[in-house]
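Project standup — Tuesday

K.O.: blocked on the structure for the chain from last sprint. Re-posting the sequence here as requested.
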Amino acid sequence: MWTEQQNFAIVQTELDEVVKQTFEYDASTPEIATAETGALFRVINTTHAAYIREVAKGPGLWKKIGETQTVPTDLPAVANKQTVLVSTFADGISLSKQLFDDNLHETWAWNVKEFAMMARVSRDANAFALFRNYSTTTLTADGSAWGSTHTLIGGGTTNNTTTAAALSPTSLQTMIVALRQQVNQANVILGFAPKYLVVPTPLFAHACQITQSVLQPDSANNNINVYRGIYGIEVFSSPYLDSAAGGSDTYYFLLAQFHHIARIVRQGVQTALRDWMYSDNLTYRYQGNFREEVSVSDYAGSIINAGL
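H.V.: unblocked you, prediction finished:
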């Protein structure tokens, strides 16, 4: 006796709908930053397997000249190039025909939701590895670790880390001063304003108290809190910064709005389904993949503290 077969296109659509709802939901809040948080990861789309980022020394300060004096000329220079190889993330899941057809207790939907959630986790964990490895394998275009001493294209050096200290109004003020006085590749102070404070989960509450209290925190004085009223620093946190994820519970990062962190996207999530008719054990094979990578091309606009 012949029975009606589940339409293959309908199966694909149902699976994709579950993946889309789970993978694309917006979880970007100050409490939970993700790879999609545009303030931290500027998106650069590419159509190639590798993307080249360049760091240039631009012109220096304008000079005072006399009435008929020749206008001076600066020569911009590109000395640091960074080739970002786009990574491919992929996984698959097997669903038995009976499990899908019967859908007891929505078991297949739960499995597919978990499949999509693991895609999100993989993307976020990879993105925040850039922060976790700031002093080791996260390199800028000059070949140095992101949080280290950097040789300037225009000559001289600069360091975008401050002395290790526990997060406090004092240590944050030290980082703000360092960011305001930070020089670019031409050794010119740009006066970066602090915009984003990125911390691991255990420091989130304290970071909010420091930056968002109306009055100065950790003090008996009634001084105004300049971090809230003047700078308006936003706090971002992610569990993929924490020691539980291979990071630290004490480090923290202060970024200007014009930092050099980027997320290079080659391809969003694509899915494919193999029908159970082409299997040896009556199973659907559902798989997906996406292609992207993160990088920081230059130190400028970032100050890092290892914490205590």
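K.O.: great, moving the ticket to review. Residues 107-132 form the longest helix (26 residues). Residues 8-59+79-305 form a domain with the phage-related protein like fold fold (CATH 3.90.1690).
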